[in-house]
Design brief:
The protein is α/β, with parallel strands linked by helices. The chain is built from six helices and five strands, in the order βαβααβαβαβα.
Length: about 140
């Protein structure tokens, strides 16, 4: 039986924490689809543009052996469930620190007739492998 898993994220400066998250997600089923956040969405939600643009991030994630398909998310906030409607996952995998669009996710999905499990995955050394820490370290190295 095919079991589709859907994961979301920015995946900027792809690191061991991201790889662990995606490997954990893959173990939940047979097909892992990853939705990559759009540059404009990241700018709106996080207040900065990513280091790597959306097409570079898409290629990096798609190249991982345990990712079956990587797609760009919708740029339109009103269409944020379009990927979920398109792929009809059995499970949505969330990162341990993922907060955008997750607070009332189960209720919002049920209200539009989507039923799937929502699983929050475990962190992988968050003291070391967290995007904000890695980006801060890179910024310090670039300063003269």
């Amino acid at each position: 039986m095919i079991r589709t898993i859907l994961a979301f994220g920015t995946f900027d400066v792809l690191h061991a924490g991201h790889r662990s998250f995606l490997q954990q997600a893959k173990r939940l089923g047979t097909t892992l689809i990853v939705s990559i956040g759009r540059d404009v969405t990241i700018k709106r939600l996080k207040g900065h543009t990513p280091v790597n643009n959306e097409h570079t991030r898409l290629k990096m994630v798609a190249a991982l052996l345990y990712v079956d398909k990587a797609v760009l998310a919708s740029e339109d906030p009103k269409q944020r469930f379009s990927i979920i409607k398109r792929f009809k996952p059995d499970v949505i995998a969330l990162g341990y620190d993922q907060t955008h669009f997750t607070v009332n996710l189960a209720v919002e999905l049920a209200s539009i007739g989507i039923r799937c499990d929502i699983v929050r995955l475990k962190p992988h050394r968050p003291d070391r492998y967290k995007s904000s820490l890695i980006k801060a370290s890179l910024a310090r190295k670039r300063k003269p």
